[in-house]
């Protein structure tokens, strides 16, 4: 498959840090022996989760955001492989597939200027090409009966995740989004701020819940749109964590009620977590432990169809912490789902 870079045994060897009397996660995960007909191979494998990365920040650029989401996969994989293999982490249930790489698009975008309208349009066209790869890979994994765990890239990739899952299941799907932003901007060409509006308009997304929307970053027009649509519900960060009109657990239950009657995507935007390097880093947001509790709550649902952790933008100084954060979220998800 074009753009898919396999994760190989030599990649594994170079990242795994073995230690006597310990067994690391990476010593028990599965890899594909070759990359011909990955669907057929996945079908035969006794794994539940297929992990892959998306190395891109084209969609964030196309939405005037700060780049860096390209690096989240590399930061994550070196950390994930080196956590412990034990009764809590379930590595034998995991296939590490590899990552989607868009080198020529990334190079192209590095020569574009966000202040030029025509350059933004070029980046939006490239984003829709990325959509095609993401949705195809997602549809292959979901059709093979597995749960994709998708790491990295901008939130534009929610579109490909939802579309691919919906095509595989031959039905629209629901989604829950832990996010400071609605990502329901106008259909003005694809970017990181309109993955859900495109998926909704095209009939791939049915019920959508935005959890922890920041009131300062949602326009009046968008609030009117969201309030008009029955299929969309939201709770704001301020209503839970500042004014305390409601609370985190009550809102998780409201959200669950809205989305869990059919297969749903679990979308975690790292810009909802306080002080995490991301495309829109925030000094006011949910704690890491709240994010972990959220993943646990939705990860343990029968109908969860995939997990996507996106928008983290690590630097060389922060990559260990970001990799560790994403690893906690991945293992929380697997642990919750295994204990259903
Ligand atoms: N949830 C993420 N959202 C996008 C868009 C934010 C916005 O459009 O305001 C991002 O940070 O890139």
Please write out the topology:
Blueprint: E1 4-6, H1 9-15, H2 38-44, E2 49-55, H3 58-61, H4 72-80, E3 94-101, H5 103-110, H6 117-143, E4 147-151, H7 157-169, E5 173-178, H8 195-201, E6 205-213, H9 220-228, E7 232-236, H10 237-242, H11 248-259, E8 264-269, H12 288-299, E9 304-310, H13 319-338
Parallel strand pairs: 2-3, 2-4, 4-9, 5-6, 5-8, 6-7, 8-9
Antiparallel strand pairs: 1-3
Structural class: alpha/beta
Determine the fraction of residues in helical runs and give it as a percent range: 40-55%
H/E element sequence:
EHHEHHEHHEHEHEHEHHEHEH
Summarize the biggest pleated sheet: 9 strands, mixed
Unreliable residue stretches: none
CATH fold topology:
Arginase, Chain A
Number of helices: 13
Order of strands, main sheet, comes to: 1-3-2-4-9-8-5-6-7
Report the count of strand segments: 9
Overall description:
With 340 residues, the protein is of the alpha/beta class. It has a single domain (4-338), classed as Ureohydrolase domain (Arginase, Chain A), CATH 3.40.800. Helix content is 41%, strand content 16%. It is built from 13 helices and 9 strands. It has helices spanning 9-15, 38-44, 58-61, 72-80, 103-110, 117-143, 157-169, 195-201, 220-228, 237-242, 248-259, 288-299, 319-338, and strands at 4-6, 49-55, 94-101, 147-151, 173-178, 205-213, 232-236, 264-269, 304-310. A 9-stranded mixed beta sheet has the order 1-3-2-4-9-8-5-6-7, sandwiched between helices. Helix 8 (195-201) links the parallel strand 5 and strand 6 (205-213). The chain is globular. The two termini are 34 Å apart. The mean pLDDT is 97.
